Amino acid sequence: MKARVTVVLDEKVGAVNPDIFGHFAEHLGRCVYEGIWVGEDSPIPNVRGIRTDAVQALRRLDPPVLRWPGGCFADDYRWRDGIGPRATRPRRFNIHWGNAPEPNQFGTHEFVDLCRQIGAEPYISLNLGSGSPREAREWVEYCNGTGDSTLTAERRANGSVEPFGVRYWGVGNELWGCGGHLQPGAYAAEVKRYLTFLNHFGIFKIACGPRGTNPFELRRDWTLDFFREYAKVQHPSQRPVEGFALHFYTRTPEAGGDLEFSPSEYYWSIQDTLRMEGLIQEVRAGMDAYDPGRATALVIDEWGTWHPQARSDTGLEQQNTMRDALVAALNLDIFVRNANVVAMANIAQTVNVLQAMILTKGERMIVTPSYHVFEMYRHHQAAESVRILVGSPTAGSGAPADPPVVAGSASLKNGRLFLTLTNVHIDQPVDVEVVLLGVDRPSVRRAAGRQLAGADVHAHNSFDRPRTIQPVDAALSWKGGDRSLLRLPAHSVSALELELA
Ligand code: AHR
Fold this sequence. Notes:
This protein is α/β, with parallel strands linked by helices. The chain has two domains: 2-9 and 386-500, Golgi alpha-mannosidase II (Immunoglobulin-like, Sandwich); 17-382, Glycosidases (TIM Barrel), CATH 3.20.20. Helices cover 24% and strands 28% of the residues. A nine-stranded mixed beta sheet has the order 21-20-23-18-17-16-1-19-22, with helices on one face. An eight-stranded parallel beta barrel has the order 2-5-8-9-10-11-12-13, surrounded by five helices. β17 and β18 form a beta hairpin. The longest helix has 28 residues, at 263-290. Residues 26, 70-72, 173-174, 302, 316, 348-349, 354 line the site of alpha-L-arabinofuranose.
């Protein structure tokens, strides 16, 4: 098979916000408890109760931002439960996730400690569904207060003299569902009410956007009705909300699973993932109707694969194969290509839940193929996205879903072009001619590359075989000049770094 990728170096799309490589960890199943928090007395090596192997692995991804505590959990969470001496913190039921016991051992201080250990900005989802503006505003003051107030003194007494400086705050989560089953107009009115009290803190607030898997009409209504209501200004002190968050999960047909799926089910998931790009354009277009100056940024604070065995009673656990790696790469390429529109994205979820970066079993930990994609793609962070044009055949699978086999994205930083490419064909390699176009007659001085592939799309890392999938150096023979031929193995992800002359 043959394809062509043209990189239009002079056509700048926009700066790639590092936050599009963000993560999300919820109190759900074994994500926080066991996956991150093991407690100070655990035999598992830890720093202040946070497991060291997970921190070391996550640090290698340069994670820009981590969202917490939910998800659905957020709109039932009382932040005061998670501060103060751990021995006396209340125990609750986690009503959204099987009434699991919630011991509140991991709270705000532990979360900020985790963020600092892995080098990520904290992003906290406030409780709008069952909370109040007062609780929200007090949580922000507790975290960020610098002056002389009782809440600030309480934070200091609980061990943090310095403010946490949390910039990102979600104003509830999935208010169309587990957050309260609100109508968009009613939710917009609530956001305005909350922001009246939150705007004084100089923080970045993110409102709940539509559910990407909903039918078109419901998605459109959520966006338009939200902004229509939001745009009704009664007083000049009202300000735009800084972010609006779409959620979109790649689904697997019911018959398929995380490890067992047919070629047509595989292509179905790939095709489903490609819907992300249209959703981004659609939601932005809806926002633009009321916010043409783009004062509100588009965020995608939940995305990833959701296979049928990820159910509430299984703690949303699933394995992670080369198919998941391709879904991760396709999405990240979409975000980079739409760098002028997407301000942040958070894959669900960091450990042991849905499309996890790492999996744990007691004291053992492995990284997934999706982890490797994040590690390979991290050089796009803070680079300048440039346009690419892809001429690609479709998979020719005979299945109803027949996606193009090659996709990718490109960015420029310090005279280096970073080009990431996927070949989703289930069993055929593709020979890609890469062409660089630019008024300055670009030429490549040095090229290096890495590739991630597996024996087949079902290949994955397990506790018995933790290194089945890992990136290898790509055999690249760029002979200088503005073009070269590259072979992309079947179902593979490639990352090329080209030093331009
Ligand atoms: O990520 C799992 C769940 O998916 C989140 O709690 C919720 O926001 C979404 O529906």
